[in-house]
Specification:
The protein has about 350 residues and is an alpha/beta fold. It folds into two domains: about 140 residues, 3-Layer(aba) Sandwich (Rossmann fold), CATH 3.40.50.2300; about 140 residues, Rossmann fold, CATH 3.40.50.2300. Helices cover about 50% and strands about 20% of the residues. The protein is built from 14 helices and 13 strands. A seven-stranded mixed beta sheet has the order 7-6-8-9-10-12-13, with helices on both faces. Helix 6 links the parallel strand 4 and strand 5. Helix 4 crosses helix 5, helix 7 packs across helix 8 and helix 11 crosses helix 12. The longest helix has 27 residues. The chain starts with a helix and ends with a strand. About 40% of the residues are buried.
Length: about 350
């Protein structure tokens, strides 16, 4: 019996050792199973962006604005609001940067957008457009607040479409109608001074063009170009003293310094302006577009490009659909000028 009991114990211990050995051999399998369980969610996470992209792409848009002033700010606002309205909340991230009036800073900003491989670039004004054209030929670039694309990009055979990766909107109001406005308000004037920044090619284009119209009406025109804000005061004073009326085009440097211009000309020399922002700061009247509407139009163009609904290389440059006769009531009163009834007063800030 003792021998049988001992034999039974030995067999039991053998089974126990085998079971322990089996457990020891199978022990590594548990971490492996846990790793597999952890890998599964990782694979799902990796696939999630692709699923999101298929259902609703998200985009990053870089905005380079040459300087801060009312007109350009309105264009940027309109662009952003249109793009959000078209694509939906949370679909677009904006990287909005201001070059503070410096063309070299424009190039730096654009190069940053390109390095980050943004989906689209908005160039608000001519210097950012020129920097974007030099910085990339692959990322879609939309300009806005650009007066003449042929002048800005040195295109000799202009057909209305830039081609390649560039399109946008123009802020050019009809210059012949602006000349007619000057004649309507100041028929007895003899001399017109054309005040503009000579460093802005689109300003040069505008004064050259409107000078032809004004001289055809019998006015004597003189161009007064300032290189930057540093010599604006002296040039403006000279122009004001020598002219019956001044004309200021859609000029970014002038727009950023309307208080200075107004201090020189207020109650002395009337100014016809190329856009509402300048007129509200120092002018008497303008035939102006809405820069907010212009930016909004640009935003709708951007939505079509980003979603693949349109090819930017075939998109013609678009223009503001409407222009409005507007006047600065305070400046008109200070000069004793009676404004016709079909003009709209610019709201006082």
């Amino acid at each position: 019996m003792k021998k049988l009991l001992a034999l039974t114990l030995c067999v039991a211990m053998s089974f126990s050792l085998v079971a322990c050995g089996a457990a020891a051999e199978s022990a590594p399998a548990a971490p492996a199973a846990e790793a597999t369980a952890e890998e599964a969610p990782a694979e799902e996470t990796a696939e999630a962006p692709a699923e999101e992209t298929a259902d609703g792409e998200t985009y990053t848009v870089g905005i380079c604005q040459i300087v801060q002033h009312v007109a350009l700010d309105a264009a940027t606002q309109g662009f952003e609001e249109a793009l959000v309205a078209e694509l939906g909340e949370g679909k677009v991230t904006f990287d909005e940067q201001n070059a503070q009036g410096d063309s070299n800073t424009c190039a730096t900003i654009i190069n940053g957008f390109v390095s980050n491989n943004y989906n689209l670039i908005l160039a608000n004004a001519t210097p950012p457009l020129q920097a974007a054209a030099a910085g990339t030929d692959t990322i879609p670039v939309l300009g806005t607040s650009v007066t003449d694309y042929a002048t800005a990009l040195e295109i000799t055979d202009w057909t209305g479409t830039v081609g390649g990766n560039i399109s946008g909107t123009s802020d050019l109001a009809p210059l012949d109608q602006q000349a007619e406005m000057l004649k309507e308000l100041f028929p007895e004037a003899k001399t017109v001074g054309l005040l503009y920044c000579s460093a802005e090619p689109n300003s040069q284009y505008q004064v050259d063009t409107i000078q032809t119209y004004l001289e055809g009406m019998g006015y004597t025109c003189t161009q007064y170009g300032f290189s930057d804000s540093n010599d604006l005061s002296s040039v403006c004073s000279t122009a004001s003293d020598a002219s019956d009326v001044l004309y200021v085009p859609t000029d970014n440097t002038a727009a950023a310094n309307t208080e200075l211009i107004n201090n020189i000309c207020y109650g002395k020399t009337p100014i016809i302006c190329g856009e509402e922002g300048i007129c509200s700061g120092c002018g008497v009247a303008t035939l102006s577009i809405s820069y907010y509407d212009l930016g909004y139009t640009t935003g709708k163009m951007a939505a079509k490009i980003l979603t693949g609904a349109a090819d930017i290389s075939t998109m013609p440059v678009e223009y503001a659909p409407n222009v409005t006769k507007e006047y600065n009531a305070a400046n008109a009163e200070a000069l004793g000028i009676t404004i016709p009834d079909d003009y709209t007063a610019i709201a006082a800030e």
